[in-house]
Amino acid sequence: MYPKDLRYSSEHEWVRVEGGRVRVGITRFAADRLTDVVFVELPAAGAKVTFMQPFGVVESVKAVSDLYAPLSGTVVEVNPALVDSPEVVNSDPYGKGWMIVVQPDDLRELERLMPVDQYVVAIGEAAP
Amino acid sequence: MTPFDNAQGRPRDFPVIFDFSVPGRVGSSYPNPDVPDTPLEQLIPASQLRKEPAALPEVSELDVVRHYTRLSHRNFSIDEGFYPLGSCTMKYNPKIHEDAARLAGFARLHPYAPAEGAQGALRLICELEELLAEISGMDRVTFQPAAGAHGELTGLLMIRAYFETRGERRTKVIVPDSAHGTNPATAAMVGYQVVTVKSDARGNMDVRALREAMDGSVAAIMLTNPNTLGLFEEPILDVEEIVHRAGGQLYLDGANFNAVLGVTRPGDQGFDVMHMNLHKTFTTPHGGGGPGAGAVGVKAHLAPFLPVPVIERDGERFRLDDQRPQSIGKIRAFYGNFGNLVRAYAYIRSMGADGLRQVAETAVLNANYLLARLRSRFDLPYDRLCKHEFVLSGARQKRQHGVATRDMAKRILDYGFHAPTIYFPLIVEEAIMIEPTETESKRTLDEFADAMLAIAREAQDDPEVVKTAPHSTPVKRLDEVRAARQPDLRWKPR
């Protein structure tokens, strides 16, 4: 449900470090709460994102929610599959459902995100 | 084609009016003209003429009447049953208001009639402005906005114009996380950056978070009071002080005005602008898409920015004032949805001051009665005396029985009621938002409470019947996901 090798934000984004870059998506918890995702709006490659500021929008049949950047940096890649198949956010949130790849300004910002054991407590899926 | 496939009258399909089309069939036929016919080409420039005729349905008057009457039977309305749609104030709309709105002097008045020929209508608008100013504690009121969100836009445009006039550059608008989605959307549309402030554990705006977010870059805060949890914002006077001290403006989303009519006035709480949904609080028709009426009240310092025209009283004469240089301009044709102003006026006049206060008191009593009957079987995340509505959570049913709030909302249709608002406000998991309004009897409230409790039992004993609901409606569960992912919005000829 919550891979150990990721870092997590309080707004339910996950971050995977890949070399000097990070891949970003939303967690299983967020995907389940949203229910069926029908539309994802993402920035273009080259856009700047700022720590805990909205970088996009995810829309489900239930709600429209902002996506928050877990790190500051520059978007270098955007998942093109989400245009036609937003449902992969529900079916495979940590794999095919990834959203953007960011070139971080400062990787040390990762320290401001939660490790998995802290995140599962934060969402009430494990005892503190 | 026939729309029913058997003697039980079960709809076979959902035909559209085009499906009834027969080449050459017309709704009415006219005698040949007794003057010479002028060819169309001589009347309209060739560039503006169609190359091919429009694919309009060719049907008789009776085809049209039957088709739309049949569709109307599939609708659900307040005249048919209880409609506890939270945040929407689906109260009964008295029929006498229809009499008033249909008086020929109002209904048949030409929109271009000169002011001298429309004194009665202008007097009604002017008096309604005076009444709503008194009820809300505001100084002036405009009736041009066509609905609540349009009122928000009008209000924020006035706030923007106010700061521009003062030479102040402010870039942000604060909205609480319990706000109606239209609030951040409006702020963004007017060009402001939206700053969200979280609610505290009691369901109030978090004053500490507000203090941190508030500075000279904030133009306004948009607040709903009572808020969308149905709770009165207890720290409202602190909020007022924090926002005004930093030079910001207080906007009230008046969607929930019904709860405080005649009891407290937003103007006295310090609000600078508010919209009033006449189609909620003041019984003008609602649902089915309107037309609504989103009156906007302002304090005197914002009055120069009101949309034109403004109606001014000169003794017993009334005139339209267009000469207002600081006005944000026109935001709606003519003077808004005038027929609804007549209805709202009839309502206020027939209720009187004491009657309006009783509206709020009974709305609050009804909501608290329903809450008391339901609270044992559903979660209640914010446990306080509620105002006109309350928000339950279906989290227990989802966790224990796999029955989601959406399932229970579908099931309530089988019991003959409209569903409550669900999944809003966003801060409550599996939210069920119930607003009974003051116009329902105890008997109706009890029938609804019995149905909700029965559904809670079904969720436990027979979850499948809830998960597959509704069972008695013309169509079963709609595929909302497919409708959103592959929208099919337009009829095309086959």
From TrEMBL, chain A:
Its cofactor is (R)-lipoate. The modification N6-lipoyllysine is found at K62. The glycine cleavage system catalyzes the degradation of glycine. The H protein shuttles the methylamine group of glycine from the P protein to the T protein. Binds 1 lipoyl cofactor covalently. The lineage of its organism: Bacteria, Bacillati, Candidatus Sysuimicrobiota, Candidatus Sysuimicrobiia, Candidatus Sysuimicrobiales. One of its GO terms (cellular component) is cytosol. InterPro entries: 2-oxoA_DH_lipoyl-BS, Biotin_lipoyl, GCV_H, GCV_H/Fam206, GCV_H_sub, Single_hybrid_motif. Residues 21-103 form the Lipoyl-binding domain. Pfam families: GCV_H (PF01597). Belongs to the GcvH family. This is Glycine cleavage system H protein. GO terms for biological process: glycine decarboxylation via glycine cleavage system; protein lipoylation. SUPFAM superfamilies: Single hybrid motif (SSF51230). The glycine cleavage system is composed of four proteins: P, T, L and H.
TrEMBL record, chain B:
GO terms for biological process: glycine decarboxylation via glycine cleavage system. CDD domains: GDC-P. Residues 461-480 are annotated as: Disordered. It comes from the Bacteria. Residues 360-461 form the Glycine dehydrogenase C-terminal domain. The keyword Iron does not apply. Gene3D superfamilies: 6.20.440.10, Aspartate Aminotransferase, domain 1 (3.90.1150.10), Type I PLP-dependent aspartate aminotransferase-like (Major domain) (3.40.640.10). Belongs to the GcvP family. C-terminal subunit subfamily. The glycine cleavage system is composed of four proteins: P, T, L and H. In this organism, the P 'protein' is a heterodimer of two subunits. The glycine cleavage system catalyzes the degradation of glycine. The P protein binds the alpha-amino group of glycine through its pyridoxal phosphate cofactor; CO(2) is released and the remaining methylamine moiety is then transferred to the lipoamide cofactor of the H protein. This is Probable glycine dehydrogenase (decarboxylating) subunit 2. It comes from Candidatus Segetimicrobium genomatis.
